[in-house]
Each structure stands twice: as C-alpha cells, then as structure tokens.
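Deliverable D5.2: sample structural annotation.
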Amino acid sequence: MSRRGVTVRFAGAAVCLFLAVILLEFSGAGMVSVRTPLDGYKYVLVSILFLACAYLFVSALARLQGEPRGLLSVDGGTVLAGSGSSALQRLGSRTSASIIATWVFLALSLMFTLLLVTDPLTFTGMAQEGGFIETASAAMSFLSFFILIIASVRIWRTGNPARVRYLIPAVLLVLYFFVMGMEEVSWFQRVLGYETPALLAGNSQGEINLHNYDTLQSFNAYFITAFMFLLLFPFLRDLTGILRSSRVARLFTPNVYIVMMGAIAGAFNYKLWGFASVQLSFFASIFILMFYARRAERNRSLVIAVMLGCLAIQAMIALSGSGLEGSQATGDFRDVSEYREFLTPLAFLFYSLEVLSRTRRRDLRPARP
C-alpha cells in the first residue's frame, strides 16, 4: 500500500476516535470514567466507531511494511521474513507445550464464562476477597517473581560483559511481579493484622493496596499496560525491525502464544466498556489476531479459535449483564474483574517461564576469543 493509503487509514482512525469521544462526552458517559449509562443506539454507535478506529489503525500499521512477509519462528515467537519472501509461514513451531498451554488457557476462559452464564452465584463466590481466584492470582504473581529472579541469576552468571543491559529489564520485571503479588494480598495486612494508615483511608476495601484506591482508574491503567506489553509490543516486533534488532528485546518480548493469552484476558473487561482505551484495546486485539491468522499457515486454526473465543467471551459477558453500566444498580453483582486479574497473571506466568527458557540460549554468553 502507498504512503497515501496508509496516511488515509491513520486519518480515518483519528476521525473515528474523535467522533466516538465526542459522542461519549455529549451522552454524559465520558471518555475515562463511566458516569451514566449509554442509550442502546449510542452504545452500539460508539462501539462501531471504536471498532472502525481499531481496524484502520491496526491495518495501517500492518501495511507500513509494504509487501506481505512470512512469519518465521524465533525463540518460540515470530519475526517477519524479507519482503516478498515465500518463506515458511508458521507460528512458533518449536514448542508444542506453548500450543497446549494456549488451548488450555482458552478452555479455562470459556469455562469461567459458561459458569458466569449458568451459575452466577458460584461464579461470584469463587471471586470473593480471599477466595480461590484472588489467592491463585497472588500465587501466580509470586511464582513469576521467583522465576524472574532465577532468570536474573542465570543472566548474571553468563559472564557476558553486556549482561547489565539484560539485567535492567529483568530486575524491573522482578519488582513489577513482586508489587502485583503484594497488592493482591494487600501487603499481607489480613495475615499480620495491622491497621490501614490514614493516607489510604479512601481505599474502597479499607485495606493497604493501591489498586482499590481508585478502582476503575486503577483497573484501566493496569489492563491497558498489560495490553501494550502482551499484545502491542510483540505485534510491533513482528511487524517492524524496531524490537527485532535488539537481543535484549528478543529476550523479553512476549511470543505469539502469550499474545493470544493476553487477548483472551482482555475480553474480561468488567465495568470498563465505557472507557475509550478499553474498547480500543479489545478491538485492536481482535485485529492483531486477524493479522497473525492471515500471515500464518501452521497453527492458523489456533489463532482463529482464540479470536472467536474472545468474541464469544465478550458477547456472553455482555449478554449476561456483567460489564455493562447499571448492572449493579439492578442488583446484578456478577463481577468478572477478579477473573481478569486471574487470567492476566496466568499469561504473565507463562511469559516468565518463556523468559526463563530463553536464558539458556548460548548467545547470552560472552563470545570466545
């Protein structure tokens, strides 16, 4: 596609975004906070505008490279081959374990969604504070924390003169997973029994954590960050040479299977559908999956299944009344936020294991003289 065509698509995406935001503001819903429910036709129109914006944006990015390019397996992920190449179009063929993990992740997500539809009381009970879902979420964050510590030690022991470049993102990830785990258990306040300081008196649960201090805004920031890390960065890696040329980026950028897991977790967008960023990230995830499905020959069925699964999960959650503004006002307290907080750490846990396996690569070790 010509530069003009790409420019037109970017411009079209900007226009759709502008119109959607204007409609949200004039309807009283707002772009970054859900103040009042949208009318039925406005809800549909806003979603169509965000869908069009996401499609134009992702398709414009996909065409920046010009000619179609084959997907080649690298470290369980994908990169793009040379222009016009008829090279192998495959998705991370080296790891059947990754394929199985993705199918399990999809099946688990669909099982949660069916439980919501068929037995909302059990669904809600499992997501109570201190219940199975929250405990498992914290455990997975701590597991990721320990796995990245092991990966960091491996990197240090390579003796590579450039190991500091690898250690910086590794240590940042260690700190991130530690904070996420501690946030889930409220920094062990319930175990140790200490009081909530006055500084955090505005916490919705009266506990020591930040993600319940301004709940909707915190959820929005956390999940958009997860979208960027789990989907957008790998997509740009596979689309351009920006991240592919760096060994550090190749070590820490999620592979295509983690991309699919991140997309599935993104379908659980409890009470955040009125956020512009949430709708854009969800629709962008669908079109990113379409990009991978179009460019792949091996395991294409898996990508298509994940894409359809995301749409099915989103539809069932919406039709059940959960995730739409006003559901709590009508007495429906079915809450999928804890399940998204479970699936996102699960995707990060698989990512941590992938990083750990990559630290065994020989190119992390110093070159012999």
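Annotation notes: Residues 216 and 299 are 36 Å apart (CA to CA). The first strand starts at residue 71 and ends at 74.
The annotation will be released with the project's public dataset once the embargo ends.
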